[in-house]
What we know:
The chain is an alpha+beta fold. The protein is built from six helices and twelve strands. The strands form three sheets. Strands 1, 5, 8, 9, 10 and 11 form a six-stranded mixed β-sheet that branches. A three-stranded mixed β-sheet has the order 2-4-3. It has a three-stranded antiparallel β-sheet with strand order 7-6-12, with helices on one face. Strand 10 (165-170) and strand 11 form a beta hairpin. The radius of gyration is 17 Å and the shape is globular. The mean pLDDT is 95.
Amino acid sequence: MERDLRITRVAHVEARLEPMEWPWASENRERIEANWQRRKAQTPKMFNGRVLMLRDVDLTPERCINTYFEVDYASLVAWIDFGNPDRSVANGFAMGALRGSDGAFLCGVMHEHTANAGRIYFPAGTPDLSDLRSDGTVDLATSLTRELHEETGLSEGDYRVADDWIVVERWPAVAMMRMVTLPFPAEEGADRIRRVIALQDPPELSDVRIIRGPDDIEPQKMPLFLQSFFRWSFGQL
């Protein structure tokens, strides 16, 4: 395994919200605001809503229990842009590891108007208040399928979602992943997604990449945790 990397297959993922004041955000409010204005000038469609960040992960071979707190999106973006200066928190999200019936994976290229323009990811998104339930739990399973639909147009009847989860932890990024398998080959899936994003206004994706093996990994455009997942999937870790 690579340094600071942990990949664990678990049967269950649980998450809940516990309110917390984030000292780093309070102490850096002016820098956060200046960074947000810079980002807005580059990508005017960005919206400063409320999102959920990880404050704790309890991971065993049986289950992953995540504790979240609420923060404004501008603070999350600044924390990422500044190089994750507060390592006591993390960006934790559900992610659908989309693949065709032939086993090849499908990733999206983020559109230029998004915060991660040009980056290559599986469909995913930082959980927000729409994922919060009345009992304080955070519904990561629904977050996964919602993001998959928003980015690719695929609905739950179009694929099969695995029951178990693969937690890819490369702090301060924690991806709660589920295998999402289409009933047709990856090439057909890519064509279908491209037709969908051509009709979206604005689309979240600009294109689709098919990952069949290690040679398809693009280190300059993929985050480290995703590169690690692919190497693990292809038996290189």
